[in-house]
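Exercise: predict the fold of this chain.
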Amino acid sequence: MKKVNSLYVIDDDKIYHFLLKSLLKQNGIDIESTFFVNGQEAIDYISQGDNIKNLPDLILLDVNMPIMDGWQFLEEFAKLGNGISRKPVIYMISSSNNEVDINKAKEFNATVKDYFLKPICKEDIEKIFIG
């Protein structure tokens, strides 16, 4: 089993936040979770104080969000490079099954581990948290 103690969820869908919390609980995954409604909110938080040194083990990142989408978040996150002491594992989670988005995620293969379609299910949770 993977050692995952902390999680950032960057997604503008509050219903998804609720469903994800429920799915984690149903699967016995007790994890410290922080939720953001867009990439800018997450970047602002990460950039404050020592937060850049205390990044989570895992980030679940939506593609389509207002203000700053998932792709823009990845670009801004990469700019923080030198200040990041350890890199979290990032999974893209999206309702978009557009080949352009799926292929774009592959371009970020050094940063993005995989791409999952919403709604995520028990099997996806197992792949992400258990391996």
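Check your answer against the key: The chain has five helices and five strands.
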